[in-house]
Amino acid sequence: MAIKKFAVAAYDDEDVLFPAVSKVRRSGYKMHDVYTPFPVHGLDVAMGLKETDLHIAGFIYGLCGTSTAVGFISWIYTIDWKINYGGKPHFSLPAWIPITFELTVLFAAVGMVLTFCYLNQIMPGVKKHVFHPRQSDDLFILTLELNNHTSEADAIAFLKSTGAKETSIQMAEESWWYGRWDKKEEYEALNA
Amino acid sequence: MNDRFEIPARLRNTSLALIGVGVLTLVMGAVMLLSGNDMDKTRFWAVLLHDSVFFTFITGVSIFVQAAVSLAQGAWLTAYRRVPEAIGANAWIFGTIALIVTLCIIFGFKDSHGVNTIYPWVTPGTDKILLGKKAFLNPTMFIGFSVATVALWGFFGNKFRSYSIAQESAPKNDTKIYWKVFRLSGLFLIVYGLSQMSTIPWLWVMSVQAHWYSTLFSWYNFASAFVSGMSLIMLWVVYLKNQGNLQLVTKEHMHDLGKFMFAFSIFWTYLWFAQYMLIWYANIPDETVYFKLRQHGPYSVIFYANFIINFCMPILILMARPSKRNYFTVTFMAMVIIFGHWLDFFQMIMPGPLGEHWHINWYEIGTFMGFVGILIFLVSRTLSKSSLIQNNSILLKETAVHIA
């Protein structure tokens, strides 16, 4: 949650983008992110992104679902409300497996979707700064994070040398915040 | 690209030694068990039945995999397609062994009371249930389905392989053979559906307890065979990779095979549980007799070991992505899965004829080793006869850049 300074470069070709990304990584500039209109295969590797731990989170959510189901059903049928179903024992694990399975899947699925949204900072009702209006259309946008000691002119010159079509310096909020694009004026009035 | 497989002396000697152990066990079994009491005689034949059926099923899976992948026009198998081809082309040999064993049991085996304790429907006596099933459970039906299955598996297994070899000398980018294999694959799926997925497990395995039946049984057998058949392919791929062959196979291809081992372990558990829960819930004595013997009776050790080895271990060990791309874990798990499903077939077949007098002892282990020896010998011999890469295949480029 901080306003930071970014150097933004727009590329119009993947074949230019990939060498530019590796040049940025070698140069020592801090890469903020790359925005592309469609998933680009291999870009995560080129950017040196770590593999996500989302599946470990999914496993933990699944375990939560399993234990919730088994715990809750066994509490109902063995302690709270014992019912004799056709002479079966009160603690009848086989009969609970389908529901346990479903709750495991439900917890894992819902939990992973929410975690995915959190990690990617997307959610209904939140805003994120858009560096370039064509980042969802036909341009690949690479952003560098600058600090007070970095020379803006050097950063722009460097980005131009990697083949950028457009460059700019922007002050922007780096993470997400509450708000809606279509109600922008209302929120601004509220905050004023 | 030329990639020949020369059988290493060590592999050949190992396979011959294993066959030697198997033959020795068979001779010792014939001397010691066939002269013994009824239980010993039953054990002699039941163990042979168990191993020959198990190995027929897991080798037959290789033909099914080729057919299914050809029909789906998948390229991921092409990098190591020669491995399932070599295994599938030998499935009929195990089928023939199984055929000989089952025929010996039907025509040459009776206990001292004149009852066939392995296939009780051969000697129904006055048993109303068995007499009621006589229209299907009789030697004619048995031989008809079994011979047709073994012959057709032999035909298709060898046909797929010979087409694949013919493709190497075909003109470049020629798709004639590709579409021939495509049509043949559709036909084989029908054959496989009518054999492995229905009649053959009914006749060979389920009729051991002829009073009991389950409509899910053949699917359950198929799932068991499929996951161990995939593990078998994995073991050969890893072995050939370690020998320096199969340069086109990358970790991406291993990952695919690993996914099959993982996913079909879960699928097996699904069918295992579906069969178990319906019988447990309905609680009809005709049906529960099957699980009474296995879960609470003398087989409870194998029953729970079966579940732990075939479900808990794959789900916990193979779930993570890195473990499906690691040579050690996939080799270890492939062996565990094959052993686990060997146990699964053991607990399907043994309780009927042997009751509480089951053993896993010198005879069971020796017979298993003998069959492993035959498998290694036959498959390595077939592998060495042609290039290990399907040169000139129209999918070669696609398989080289495949990503799991």
Give helix % range of chain A: 40-55%
Biggest pleated sheet of chain A:
4 strands, antiparallel
Q: SS-based structural class of chain B? A: mainly alpha
Strand/helix succession of chain A: EHEHHHEEHEEH
* Dominant shape of chain A: elongated
Write down the Rg of chain A: 25 Å
Number of strands of chain B: 0
> How many strands, which pairing sense, and closed or not: the largest β-sheet of chain B?
none
Percent helix of chain B: over 70%
**How many structural domains are formed by the residues of chain A?**
2
CA-based shape of chain B: globular
Segments of chain A where pLDDT lies below 50 for 5+ residues? none
Protein name (chain A): DUF3341 domain-containing protein
Organism (chain A): Flavipsychrobacter stenotrophus
Transmembrane segments (chain A): 56-77, 97-119
Pfam family, one (chain A): ActD
Spell out the blueprint of helices and strands.
The complex is a heterodimer of chains A (192) and B (404).
Chain A: E1 3-11, H1 14-27, E2 30-35, H2 43-47, H3 54-80, H4 93-120, E3 126-127, E4 140-146, H5 152-161, E5 166-173, E6 177-178, H6 184-191
Antiparallel strand pairs in A: 1-4, 1-5, 2-4, 3-6
Helix pairs in contact in A: 3-4
Chain B: H1 9-32, H2 38-71, H3 82-89, H4 91-108, H5 128-132, H6 139-168, H7 176-205, H8 217-242, H9 251-282, H10 285-296, H11 300-318, H12 321-324, H13 327-349, H14 351-354, H15 362-383, H16 396-400
Protein name (chain A): DUF3341 domain-containing protein
Organism (chain A): Flavipsychrobacter stenotrophus
Transmembrane segments (chain A): 56-77, 97-119
